[in-house]
Structures are given as structure tokens and as C-alpha cells.
Amino acid sequence: MTRIVSGIKPTGSLTLGNLIGAIKRFVRLQEDMEDTEFFLFIADLHALTSRQIPHKLRKHTLDVAAMYLAAGLDPEKTTLFIQSEVKEHAELGYLLQSNTYMGELERMTQYKDKSSKQNQNIISSLFTYPALMAADILLYDADYVPVGDDQKQHLELTRDIAERFNHYYHDFFKIPEPIIPKVGARIMDLQNPTKKMSKSEDSDKGCITLFDNEKQIRKKVRSAVTDSYRKIAYDPVKQPGIANLLNIYAGIREEKIETILDMYEDKTYKDLKEDLAEVIVAELLPLQERYHKLIKSDTLQDILDKGREYAQNIAFKKVRKAKRKVGLGRK
Fold it and tell me: What is the mean pLDDT of the chain?
């Protein structure tokens, strides 16, 4: 049976970008791909590449799990679990770190970007975490990994590490292939459409979180930056603000950009914003209602317990074999 593995880091509040770019995509994959086993983990260990407030990290971890379920994730088709609860992720991560070159890690974009902004007191896990990310994937013999533009480099490194391990210790890891979405441009900040939408920005005026109320949503959409062209067209270079609004509209409705453009051929920016706000409200309010029912329920805990047990059973066997491959153990 084909396996697909994906993870999401629980840092900051979930945003509309997370919903469109990750959550809805994964749920759609689950619905479209038959005879496929899905593994989805909350990557709380990866969150530790920057300092976290403990109680907030725990909350965000459960928020992510509950939101995926609220958005339609089927726990009968997907093994949903928390990364740190399966210790084999860290264990295999170290084995793979021991088969990864420093030059490879130095070339990783996120490390280069963050280290250039913060040239001292950089946490060492920011440098080594790609090896852990490789373990997350290889631990479950993933056939495919859903990736966006900003994650292709990580999967390429994972493939390189797996091939190197296979060369030294004979065939052991399955080499995963990427699943790249046909549609689904990044969702950008409403106030600065050249930057990715993120709650970690200094101001949250350009970021719609999955917990915003109706008033907040409408206000943020109405105040979204546009341009002076006064024509609704999809041009990310000349009209990045309008392009972003169209991406959001198309992402929520799961429609092509061209379909949305046809709807607004003779309409104004105000029309587009008012309708988009309505679309977002109609999407998020029911999602929030389902989330609130799940977040403190035994159902959520039971699903995570079941997911942990199933994932751990597979992970334990894989790591036991990997340790033997590299010569660890007394026999």
C-alpha cells in the first residue's frame, strides 16, 4: 500500500495560509487517493529550533490536531499523532545526522536566512534539524511527501541522505517522491503581499488566523492593500495585493483563478473584498465551531493515543533494524 507522510510545525496561531496551503490540501489528498495510508504528525520537536513558551507550545500542538480534524481529516484513513510522543523520530534523526555532511546543512535556506539575521546565540538544532526531518519521512517508508516551494530543498536532502545510507549499509530506506500541488500559491500578508502570511509578524493586521471572529475577518479583508490599476487581474508582479486576494478566494473555493476572474470581470475591488470576506467567514465560522467541540474532548485524545500507538509500532521496528545496520547493539 502506498504511504504519504506529512507534518506541520505548531508555532504561532494557525492562519488562513495554513488552512489553504496545508490543511485543505492534505484533506483533499486523503479523499482523492484510494489504497493509500496517510501519516500526519504535529512536529513539536521542530518547534524547538527557536525558544518556545511551554504552555503555548502544548496548546498550539493540540490546536493543530483539532483543526485538521475539524477540517475533515478522517482518522480512519490517517494516522494522526504528535512527533515527540514517538521517540524513534529523535533516535533515527541522530543516526541520519551521523550520515549528513555539514556542507549540506549549511546550504539549507532556512538556516542561511535565520543565521544571517541572528549571527549569535543560534540554537544548534536550527542547523541539524533537516536530519530529523529526514527521519520523520524515512521512518515510515513514505512513498510520497506533499511539499510546497519552500520545502523542496528539505525533501531533496532527505533523498540524498537515504541514498547515501543505502549505499553504505545496502538498500534499507525507500526513496520518497514529492507531491507538488498543481494550484496553491503561497498566501501572503494582506498588508504586505510580498511576505508570507504569518502571525509572527510585528502586526497582525495582514494576517487572518483560524480563530479570528467575523468582525476581525471583515475588517482585515476590507483594509487589504491593493493598487491603483482599478482592474481585477491576476498579476503577482504588478498587482500582488489583488493576486493574493484571488489566491485566497480560489484556495477556499477550490476553484481555478480563471473561474474567479470571470466572476469579477466588470466588478470593483470593493466587490471582490466584500465577497471574499463573506467566503472566508462562511469557511471559518463552522470550522471554529467544530474545533471547539473537539479541542477539550475525549475524542481528540483517543485519536492521538491511537495514532501514537500505531506509529510507534512501525517506528520501533524500523529503528531497531537501522541500529543493527550501522552496528549498534551487542549482537
Answer: 92
